[in-house]
Amino acid sequence: MKREAYFLPLSCAAAVSAGMILKMSARWSDTAAWSYIISPVSNTPWELFKPFAIAYMFWILIELSCLRPHLLHFVCSKSIGLYTLFAAIFLFHYILSPLLPFDVFSAWTASAAAIIAECVSYSLYKSDIRVEIFSLPLLLTYLITVFLIIILTAAEMKYIGTAV
Q: What is the pLDDT of residue 1?
């Protein structure tokens, strides 16, 4: 479809901008308790992944409502994109963090990871590769990822003394 071609740059821009807004929400809200749910609590790769993953998951819902794609193929390719996002942030964190100051590192590398994840999921969606055969493991790991975002955020909030 023609409108699918417009969604790759739009989804890259949305993932980066929404992820950066969610990342900065704790700083902008003067460290309110609600902001710790959607923004990084510590400087770990997992916490840097959290705001971009939330933005990525929300953008999946927008794409589903606008494009109306083949559901199973779309969700499987987006799930692989989500794991690509985590792997890219994790690798960038441990490779580039000794070289760059944290504010520069986290902003640029997480944005690059979001763009890489969107490109991977889009290319998988447009390809003839049958990612549907991995639908059950992808669904289970996707649910585990959502569960871990909730549980690890609550654990970090308890550790730093913020009421959940």
A: 53
CA dist., res. 50 & res. 86, Å (int): 9
Residue 34 burial by Cβ neighbours in a 10 Å radius (0-12, 13-18, 19+): exposed
Contact 147, 108 (CB under 8 A): no
What integer pLDDT is reported at residue 164 of this predicted model? Answer: 44
Residue 59: CB atoms within 10 A of its CB come to 21
Kindly report whether the global pTM for this prediction surpasses the value 0.90.
no
DSSP per residue over 52-120, as a string? HHHHHHHHHHHHHHHH---HHHHHHHHHHHHHHHHHHHHHHHHHHTTTS-HHHHHHHHHHHHHHHHHHH
- Mean pLDDT over 53-73 rounds to 81
- List % helix, strand, coil for the chain (3-state, nearest 5): 80, 0, 20
Tell which residue, 116, 3, 121, has the closest CA to residue 73. Answer: 121
Q: How many residues are recorded in the chain?
A: 164
Mind listing the pLDDT tens digit for each residue in 99-133? Answer: 766 665 666 777 888 888 888 988 888 888 888 88
